Each structure stands twice: as C-alpha cells, then as structure tokens.
Amino acid sequence: MKGFLPMDEINFKLLPQRTDSRAKGRIGQHLHPGQKLMVQVVREPFAAKPPTVTTYFSLPGRYLVLMPGADSAGISRKIQDDEQRERLKKMVEELNPPEGFGLIVRTAGVGQSKAELQRDLRYLLRLWDSIQKASRATEFPGLVYRERDLVIRTMRDYFTQDIDEVWIDSQDTYDRALEFVSDVMPQKAKIIKLYSGDRPLFSKFNLEEQIESIYMRRVPLQIGRRDRHRRDRGADRDRRQQQGRREARRRRGERHADQPRGGRGDRAGSCACATSAASSSSTSST
User: Are 96 and 126 in contact (CB under 8 A)?
Assistant: First the structure.
C-alpha cells in the first residue's frame, strides 16, 4: 500500500517533529522510514500515480465538519447572509469543542438549533474516538475507516426536516440508515421504514413514471383551480389587449379625419416629386 504525502500535508500538531525547524530541509528530517502514520486519502489513485494522503483530518457530519488537530472554527463560504453567519459563529463558540478540535458549519446548519449542532458534534467526537481505537488495533498498513456508503451520505447531505417518510427495501441498508439517523437525528428515527411489499418499491410509488416524465418534451399539467385561474387571467389579459388595439386604431382614424387637406402648393409639390421619380426611372432604364 503506497501513498503520496506532500510536505505541506503534515500536521505537526498531531505528529512530533524530529528537528526544530520545518522551513528548510526535506521530509526525511521530520519523518523516518518505518514510522507508522494514520492518514486520510484526499485524492484517489490515478493511472500509475498513488493516492494523495494528508494528516489534516476532516470528518463531515450532518451540520458540522470536525477537524482533529486544528484550533480554528469557521462558517461555510456558501452561507453569505451576514446575520446568519454571526448567529452561527456565536453558536459554535457556545458549543465549546474540546481543545485541539476545529469546526466548520456546513450549509445544512443554517436555521438549526444549538441542540442539533451539539448532537452532531457528539456524534463526530464518538466517530473520531472509534477511528483512533481502530487505528491502534489495526496492523499497518491497513484500512481503519471508510466513509459512509452512498445511501448514508445521501441521507446525511440531503435529508431535510420537511421529509415525512423514508422507505427502504433492503434489510441491511435499513439497519444502517436507522443506526445513522438514531445517532444524528433521533427524533426522525420513526420515519425510517422498511418496505416488504410484493411490488417493487419504485412501482409502488410510481417513481419510474415520474422519472420518465422528466425527460419528456411535453409534461402534462393537472387542470385544477390554480390552472383555471391562470387561464382566466390569461383570457382577461388578451381581451384587454384587443380592446386597447381597437381603441388605438379608432383614435388614429379620428386624427386623420380632422387634418385639413393640402392646398395648391401641396399638390404641386406632390406632382413635382412624382414627375421627378418617373423621369429618373426612365433614365435608368435607358
């Protein structure tokens, strides 16, 4: 098992230094061959290149990101509202994380209470403790912890408070999802349900038809009260526009009727223009 560890990815708050200076020299002055390190993969291997690893750990949770070995706390840059940022900064300070742990509030943390953030922090601290215990018990090199699978990551990142039911048709996935929700959002554990019907889950809730309708060129709309209201408003708007056009034409006709007819000079000018045009056209023809 090989990995690439750049010099700037060594967190010396977690690893003791072999020399007093880290500004000069090579990585061999700080690490020695055969030294055991726990690292986190930040870039998967590609072609013949080994994976890039780091000792700056980050554990994402539902609302927070825990950073062991860091002392800083921050707010996601995607949260741009100044009032929300100030509110979250005060809440992070009140969480009082243990010394040597940094925190970042994710975008899902907007609008959450202090109790929800505190519960997520406790979950991440337990996770870090289990990772350290696994590291001490695992032979090197070896896998200590793998990030949650797609189902758990989806629930972690996209689960919102307005969801009423989550149906899962696999017993193993249901058990893992229920365990995760019970740790992070225990009040929502009751909405995780196991489906054991005869029909496939997608057919039961017509999900396949809804997915196919996304790719249709035309999507039929249900005719309801709101749709009728929109049609009535559209018809009224068309009638008003037609009336406005008729009124404009009528006024233009009245203005033309009220204008006086041109005098002798006007007729002479018109004839002169017409004669000039005729003569020029004939010249061009010749």
Answer: no
Please name every residue paired with 101 in a beta bridge, in sequence order, or none if there are none.
Answer: 68
166 confidence band (pLDDT: 50, 70, 90): very high
CB 211 within 8 A of CB 225: no
Which tops the pLDDT comparison, 43 or 20? 43
The Cα angle at residue 92 between residues 41 and 85, in degrees rounded to 5: 95
Using alpha carbons, select from 88, 86, 124 the residue that is nearest to residue 109: 88
The reply to whether CATH 3.30.160.20 applies to domain 59-137 is no
Q: Would you kindly state where each structural domain of the chain is located, as residue ranges?
A: 1-56, 59-137, 150-211
- CA atoms of 6 and 279, how far apart (whole Å): 89
Q: At residue 26, what is the residue type?
A: R
**Distance (Å, rounded) from C-alpha 181 to C-alpha 177?**
6
State both tokens at 153.
């990551």
Are β-strands 73-75 and 101-105 bridged in parallel, bridged antiparallel, or unpaired?
parallel
CA-closest candidate to residue 180, choices 167, 189, 190: 189
Amino acid letter for position 113: S
| Beta-sheet pairing, 64-68 with 59-60 | antiparallel
DSSP bridge pairs for 75? 105
